[in-house]
Design brief:
Layout (H helix, E strand, L loop, with lengths): L5 E8 L8 H4 L8 E6 L10 E5 L2 E5 L6 H8 L5 E8 L9 E8 L3
Antiparallel strand pairs: 1-6, 2-3, 2-5, 3-4, 5-6
Keywords: Hydrolase, Metal-binding
GO molecular function: hydrolase activity, acting on acid anhydrides, in phosphorus-containing anhydrides; nucleic acid binding; zinc ion binding
Protein name: HIRAN domain-containing protein
Length: 108
């Protein structure tokens, strides 16, 4: 039997990072920092939009091509995900600076 407490579900860079509050908290973001996911079902651009927050600061969104399953599970009240910063590269274009990994957390 595996002792894994979490399993990688998805990896991506934050969509829209340059349009939200990423630059305000960029110096506080470090690899391993926990991020929060919040659905935005009334988003006019994407009905499956899932916003990414660091504390109260909106950083952007899970990319549209990777958000459907996460959005549907969160909308049903199934909160089994843990999002963390996996990569930071200030030399990249703003939209590619922050890499995120989303885990499915295994219940104990």
């Amino acid at each position: 039997m595996s002792d894994l407490k979490r399993v990688c579900f998805e990896r991506f860079t934050i969509a829209g990072f340059s349009y939200y509050e990423g630059c305000i908290v960029f110096d506080k973001l470090t690899i391993g920092k926990k991020l929060h996911l919040k659905t935005e079902p009334h988003n006019t651009y994407d009905k499956n939009a899932v916003a990414i927050y660091y504390k109260k600061h909106k950083l952007g969104f899970i990319p549209r091509d990777k958000n459907t399953a996460i959005a549907k599970l969160l909308a049903c009240g199934i909160h089994v995900f843990e999002a963390r910063i996996q990569r930071i590269d200030a030399s990249e274009h703003t939209e590619n600076q922050i890499g995120v990994i989303v885990y499915v957390i295994k219940e104990s």
